[in-house]
Design brief:
By secondary structure, the chain is an alpha/beta fold. It has 13 helices and 21 strands.
């Protein structure tokens, strides 16, 4: 079997024509849909970026035990599992979080890998004394930097070296992917992952992709929304959205190049193709930008998924509930590898069915859906809840756990999925580097609510229905037990663990 896995970041399902989107022409996503199984009820698991990837690789939910962090020694990563069976796994990515403290164990699971530099705040080009005043005047005041320690500083420097379309990191990722196919097309037993940070913010695309969405904006560069409530002037918000539309158009074009290669070499007959994303991104819906700060609305958690299996090449829609943890087991299934016992996900190639699924941010609400309702249950006080990180790899996104955090650590018993490995049980404190960035202190909405997606697909009005809520709570408790959630995960939500 040969497999190509395309992973975008922050690709909004509802923007794609094959999912009903009308704002952006997406002819190549629509073209893919015509040759694939299109999953209509596919959801995230753990968020944001690296927690989502840990779920994807391991086939297990992680948000009840851990925030952003590396793969752990007991994790089962699908690229390594196939590699151990003689199947070559190759990663091509510009997603620079793989090379930070909180992601540095992921790319090494592949047989080989390529890293394309320059996305967002990737510390790429060494300008020791940048002309900050000249650079700053190019950018809107909301995204200016005073030095490289700001997240905006590296981006401003990186853009100085991205001049032509061929320089864009996502363009290079797909070019490397096509090169891999040229070199290895006649070989068998490989898995290629083409992963681009796009359309993640900042929304920087070649000018020709921006042209159809011009807003008349004449101000400085405005392509990086803040995480939080919408406070921008209408013309600023329009420009931010237009830049997102442009970068989705770029992603559609790049996907089209890959589909052209499939057509040209008749790869549809012997090569599987899987395309998805890690999560969505709010563009003003619910009066918010981005993710991490608000309730986990459908725009963030209900994501696209396309699968072409050459052994079952018919196109069609799949209406059963599926989740990101199912992606890794699907690759194992494609390549004839048995999933490890710790795997929670189920191969998407089989008629596995769920009644419900849970998803969330570490330290935030636990959220559950059965495809009809979504229920979001928060602790009474996000900042004062008792919560712990369970890990033997104590690093945050860009730095290790602090001595202050680790001074309160104890040794916890093994969980059912840690292969008899005990873990550090580290109390979450407000002075943790993650607390106000992608942890409990970052969340701006904290009221428990229930939505009926059938009557209220935009989740505009929380529903009061005690019977439906009780049913969703029962699903939540059962799924948390299945995940071997720690006792405090139940206590902070005032849930009884109940019988297994």
């Amino acid at each position: 079997m040969k497999t190509v896995f395309v992973l975008f970041d922050s690709l909004n399902r509802h923007m794609l024509g094959c999912y009903g989107g009308t704002r952006i022409p997406t002819p190549n996503f629509d073209r893919l849909a015509a040759r694939s199984k299109v999953y209509d009820k596919h959801y995230v698991g753990s968020l944001p970026c690296m927690p989502a990837r840990r779920d994807l690789l391991t086939g297990r939910l992680t948000f009840l035990h851990r925030s952003w962090g590396p793969l752990e020694p007991f994790d089962n990563a699908f690229p390594e599992l196939v590699k151990q069976k003689g199947i070559h796994s190759h990663l091509i990515t510009d997603h620079y979080h793989y090379w930070e403290d909180g992601g540095a164990t992921y790319h090494n699971r592949y047989s080989t890998f390529e890293f394309v530099r320059g996305q967002e705040s990737d510390p790429w080009k060494a300008m020791v004394q940048p002309h900050w005043e000249r650079l700053r005047e190019k950018y809107h005041h909301a995204q200016r930097a005073t030095g490289p320690i700001s997240k905006y500083g590296p981006y401003m420097i990186n853009r100085e070296f991205i001049k032509e379309e061929k320089d864009f990191p996502s363009v290079q990722c797909f070019a490397h992917g096509l090169e891999f196919l040229d070199i290895n097309r006649d070989a068998d037993d490989w898995l290629l992952q083409i992963e681009t940070f796009d359309p993640h913010e900042p929304f920087f695309a070649p000018e020709r992709f921006k042209e159809p969405f011009k807003t008349g904006w004449n101000g400085p560069i405005r392509d990086w929304p803040r995480y939080g409530r919408v406070e921008e002037l209408p013309e600023e918000a329009d420009e931010l959205r237009a830049n997102y539309y442009a970068i989705v158009s770029l992603c559609d074009f790049l996907l089209g190049q890959l589909l052209d290669d499939f057509d040209r070499h008749d790869m549809w007959r012997d090569t599987a193709l899987v395309v998805t994303t890690d999560h969505g991104f709010l563009l003003g819906e619910h009066d918010f930008w981005a993710k991490n700060r608000m309730n986990m609305y459908e725009e963030i958690v209900h994501i696209p998924l396309f699968i072409h299996d050459p052994r079952d090449p018919g196109a069609g829609r799949v209406s059963r509930l599926t989740q990101s943890v199912d992606v890794g087991p699907t690759f194992l299934d494609l390549h004839g590898v048995e999933p490890p016992a710790e795997t929670q996900g189920m191969s998407l190639l089989r008629e596995n069915r769920r009644e419900a699924l849970i998803f969330g941010y570490f330290g935030g609400a636990v959220n559950v859906t059965d495809g009809r309702y979504t229920y979001h249950r928060y602790p009474d006080d996000l900042k004062r809840q008792e919560i712990y990180q369970y890990t033997v790899m104590p690093t945050h996104i860009t730095k290790p756990f602090t001595p202050e955090e680790l001074s309160g650590a104890t040794l916890a018993r093994p969980f059912a999925w840690t292969k008899e490995v005990p873990l550090l049980k580290v109390p979450v404190i407000e002075r943790s580097p993650m607390f106000d960035n992608y942890g409990p202190g970052a969340i701006l909405e904290n009221d428990t609510r229930l939505y009926d997606l059938e009557t209220d697909p935009g989740q505009a009005a929380p529903l009061a229905d005690l019977e439906a809520e009780a049913r969703m709570v029962a699903f939540m408790r059962a799924l948390m037990r299945d995940n071997d959630a720690p006792p405090e995960a139940f206590a902070r939500l005032k849930l009884q663990r109940g019988d297994a």
